[in-house]
Amino acid sequence: MSDLLTILKGAKPANEVLAGLRDENMQASLSAGQKLVQSAKQAKLSMPDYLRLAVKPDPQMKLDGFECALAYLNLPIREDYSQGVLLQAAAETFTSFPGTRALFPQVVDNILQWKYRQNQIEDVSYLVAQSRTVNGVEMITTVIDDKAEDYQQTGVISEGARIPIRSLRTSEKSVKFYKFGGGIEFTYEFERRASLDLITPYASRMEREVQIGQTAMATATLINGDGVNGAAPVITATAIGGTLAGGPSTALVAGKLNWEVFLKWLVLQAQKGTPIDTVVGNYDMYFEWVRMFATPNAQLGGKTQMEVLQAAGVEVAIQNPRFDLNVNFALSSTAPAGNLIGFIKGETLEELVENGSDIEESVRAIENQKVRYVKTTNKGYRLIFADTRSILQLV
Predict the structure, then answer these.
(1) I need a labelling partner for 165 at 20 to 30 A (CA). Which of 156, 204, 249, 269 fits?
(2) CB 327 within 8 A of CB 278
(3) Residue 154 domain-assigned (yes or no)
């Protein structure tokens, strides 16, 4: 039986699992908090995930184990005057029972999510196929295809012919993990006199900075590879323009998007069997993306490229041009100037999250005489397939 299954089968009500945290003896409360953190650390789980397994859920109130723990400890994450719920209650709990500070980072994080639910401008989720939790070192996987001449056509198997096989092999190189996060520090005297939602705007800014950092690392992997799979191939707008009959209808300008060149790039990638559904660019490229569809062009009789395409029967939306190939734009401020990175989102980049990598922040929240809201996570990025990326260089 796995350790996690043992924790789940041994789940108890919140008042049994967390009774020591509410001991009026401050030292006893502190000791219980340290024990709780150690249990989560040994299980290699974040505090919320550990409590979801260790505390029995309340089906009548529709609360999971973590939410039951917050309710038992009187740690609300939002104010509801009609129900007499005040965020100040959480501040009082943290002050009276120091062991409960093991949950301080998670409470502030939940307040932030409830209050803002912001949609980040730069969000790494727009770049990754999936996010997967790992317990330790993760080796980079390589994909080996059968030779094309060994079979007739991918997906079509002739009678008696061999089945094409992709071999997944583990390399000797591991995924590089980065620590993302930040913190806010203040004294318990401040925390006792102020409602916890006072710090949520600062936590919001920190979360935005974290997303920018994660997007930067994911973008670097898309461009340079992951140490086993190499850099993405680059094709220039000039090279593509030379393949068009008579050249593109409008002159090529460095750093400027041209509709025909862009469309030809998509077609070239689709011909290779790797059609692009996501492009990544910086703020200047986002401006070019919108301009390509929304700005009148004197060479087009004062019409926008979108209007010309619509007149020709091609339905186009500003941020998601629909020309049988749906393409979404993802913003990355660290993407190189004058370049678009194109790829298949579902087959290209995987995010790996180190399990329990944030538990040390609960330790610091208990042991320090100052309150620290710290949120950190260890994450790494690896390529799933190496041939699904292409960079369009606008020169």
Answers:
(1) 269
(2) yes
(3) no
Beta bridge partners of 174: 139
Say yes or no to pLDDT of 224 above 90.
yes
Query: Does the pLDDT value for residue 321 go beyond 60?
Result: no
- Assign residue 215 the CATH number of its domain: 3.90.1690
Half-sphere exposure of 142 (CA within 13 A, CB side): 13
Q: List all residues 6 or more positions away from 160 whose beta carbon is below 8 Å from its beta carbon.
A: none
Q: Which domain holds residue 63?
A: 1-114
| Tens digit of each residue's pLDDT (9 = 90 or more) over 266-308 | 999 999 989 999 999 999 999 988 887 666 666 666 666 666 6
Sign of CA dihedral 115, 121, 126, 130: negative
